Structures are given as structure tokens and as C-alpha cells.
């Protein structure tokens, strides 16, 4: 049974996320304080904690909207990210789009991915992994597609990107070099 969100709860959620997004845009992730988000959105701090748990839960919720758009793009959008292009082209386009998406929300992802030892995995990671696994299996049935998907996703962890100070062009070039070695020409 699917539970529908009450209209007032949905309205509060939208106000909370808008306030949190504004605060992050103005002051960065360091400025994201639960009390300030509650005050800016007009809800009680208790409501905020019950709804999101903590700052990392709020970060996950902020990431969710762009993740949904990204998943729609690779599942049903136009090629080459979406269906209709050869698997090798889709792999490259997907990874390039994921680099851009990761860098656009790097601070939020860093917070969300480092709250616990397995915080990076699940949800979006699993969706990205499944998608890559399917494309890799189509392009190179002889490879261990699941392992290869993990290997291609590893350089996109927020903490590694932050640690290395990597830029989009460098990450994409590195992924392209890996794909060039993996994919048939």
C-alpha cells in the first residue's frame, strides 16, 4: 500500500526544501543549520528533525530532486544519455552527465555520502550501478559488468573528488580513457 503525503505535509516539505536550497546557495553547506531552515520555512525545529532526521537527511532530500531528473534522463530521455544510442555511446554520455551532476551538488553529496561507512551506497548509487551494469553487459558481455560498473563509479565519489580537487575535464578524460580500453571500437 502506498501512503500519500498529506497536502499540508507536502506544502511544508516544499517550503523546507526551498529554504534549505536558498541557504546552501547563499552560504554553502556549512551554513545549513536546522534551526535556520526551520525559521526560514516557518516550521518548528522538531518538525524538521522528525521529517529529515539531521543535516545529512536534509542534504539527501535536496539531492533527490536533481537525482530524479537525472534518472528520468537516462531512463526515458533522448539519446545518447537516454535510450536509442548504442550502449558504448550511452555509457560515455551517462558518465559525463553524472560527472556534471556530481560536481553541481558536490558539497551536498559530500555530506550525504560521508555520514556512515555505507552512506554512499543504496538509492541513487544502486540505480546508477544497475544502469551501467546493463549497458556494460550489452557492450561487453565478456566482462564482469557489476564489477566494472563499480570501477567506473568509484572516481565519482564526492570525497575522492574533493580530496583530489578534480575538475570536470580531468574526470571525464580519465573515464574516457578507461572506456576506450574497455569498449570495442
From TrEMBL:
<dbReference type="InterPro" id="IPR009057">
    <property type="entry name" value="Homeodomain-like_sf"/>
</dbReference>
<dbReference type="InterPro" id="IPR050109">
    <property type="entry name" value="HTH-type_TetR-like_transc_reg"/>
</dbReference>
<dbReference type="InterPro" id="IPR001647">
    <property type="entry name" value="HTH_TetR"/>
</dbReference>
<keyword id="KW-0238">DNA-binding</keyword>
<dbReference type="Pfam" id="PF00440">
    <property type="entry name" value="TetR_N"/>
</dbReference>
<feature type="domain" description="HTH tetR-type">
    <location>
        <begin position="10"/>
        <end position="70"/>
    </location>
</feature>
<feature type="DNA-binding region" description="H-T-H motif">
    <location>
        <begin position="33"/>
        <end position="52"/>
    </location>
</feature>
<dbReference type="GO" id="GO:0003700">
    <property type="term" value="F:DNA-binding transcription factor activity"/>
</dbReference>
<protein>
    <submittedName>
        <fullName>TetR family transcriptional regulator</fullName>
    </submittedName>
</protein>
<dbReference type="GO" id="GO:0000976">
    <property type="term" value="F:transcription cis-regulatory region binding"/>
</dbReference>
Amino acid at each position: 500500500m502506498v501512503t500519500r503525503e498529506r497536502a499540508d505535509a507536502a506544502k511544508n516539505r516544499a517550503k523546507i526544501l526551498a529554504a534549505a536550497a536558498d541557504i546552501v546557495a547563499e552560504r554553502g553547506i556549512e551554513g545549513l543549520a536546522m534551526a535556520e531552515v526551520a525559521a526560514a520555512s516557518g516550521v518548528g525545529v522538531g518538525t524538521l528533525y522528525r521529517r529529515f532526521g539531521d543535516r545529512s537527511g536534509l542534504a539527501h532530500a535536496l539531492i533527490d530532486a536533481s537525482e530524479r531528473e537525472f534518472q528520468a534522463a537516462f531512463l526515458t530521455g533522448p539519446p545518447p544519455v537516454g535510450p536509442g544510442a548504442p550502449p558504448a555511446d550511452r555509457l560515455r554520455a551517462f558518465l559525463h552527465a553524472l560527472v556534471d551532476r556530481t560536481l553541481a551538488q558536490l558539497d551536498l553529496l559530500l555530506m550525504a555520502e560521508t555520514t556512515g561507512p555505507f552512506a554512499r551506497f543504496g538509492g541513487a548509487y544502486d540505480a546508477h550501478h544497475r544502469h551501467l551494469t546493463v549497458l556494460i553487459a550489452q557492450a561487453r558481455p565478456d566482462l564482469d559488468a557489476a564489477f566494472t560498473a563499480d570501477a567506473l563509479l568509484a572516481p565519482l565519489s564526492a570525497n575522492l573528488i574533493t580530496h583530489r580537487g578534480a575538475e570536470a575535464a580531468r574526470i571525464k578524460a580519465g573515464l574516457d580513457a578507461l572506456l576506450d580500453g574497455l569498449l570495442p571500437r
